[in-house]
Amino acid sequence: MFSILVSSEVELRLMQQKNSHEIFQLVDRSRPYLGKFLPWVKYMKSLEDYKEVIQQWLLQLAENKGFQSGIYYKEELVGMIGIHPIDWAAKMTAIGYWLAEEHQGKGIITDCCQKVMQICFEEYELNRLEIRCDPANKRSRAIPKRLGFIQEGVLREAMNQNGQYRDSVVYGILKSEYKESL
């Protein structure tokens, strides 16, 4: 089983079919908060929806296109982090993450992003990482800034959030910049 220790309290674990109920419950009770920023939340309405998406995540891993993992804080699933399918020709990908509102402000996502950056740059030998955020999500936007990412621009109306087009702020970091920050 895919498991990566991030700190003494935080671990990343590969999501498997047996986790579908756990992730469904977390998203369902976090729906009002997560739905403000993440367009996919409104489509994930049943246990079956999660079984299908977990199968896609496992296929992504099997095809060497990246991974999606649950974030466990003190043995409890509190969010997710992963990378979008890797563009191996360009040697780049994007990190995506979300965390239940009640677990924010503890440095969990920052620590998890640092671990994912290490995997991407040191193990996968990628050259570029991106993080894209909703401009209104100040907490999410603070993460890439804290980790040395540079705001590169705004993709205008790049997201459809509950029928409204929203901008997406793009942050990027290169392997050379990551090495300098060590």
TrEMBL record:
Any GO MF annotation of the entry: protein-N-terminal-alanine acetyltransferase activity
Pfam families on file: Acetyltransf_3
Sequence ranges assigned to domain N-acetyltransferase in this UniProt record: 10-176
Keyword Magnesium: no
PROSITE patterns assigned: GNAT
Entry keywords, A to Z: Transferase
SUPFAM superfamilies xref list: Acyl-CoA N-acyltransferases (Nat)
UniProt key word 4Fe-4S: no
GO (cellular component) term, any one: cytoplasm
Record-linked PANTHER family: RIBOSOMAL N-ACETYLTRANSFERASE YDAF-RELATED (PTHR43441:SF12), RIBOSOMAL-PROTEIN-SERINE ACETYLTRANSFERASE (PTHR43441)
Protein name listed in UniProt: GNAT family N-acetyltransferase
Organism whose genome encodes this protein: Shimazuella alba
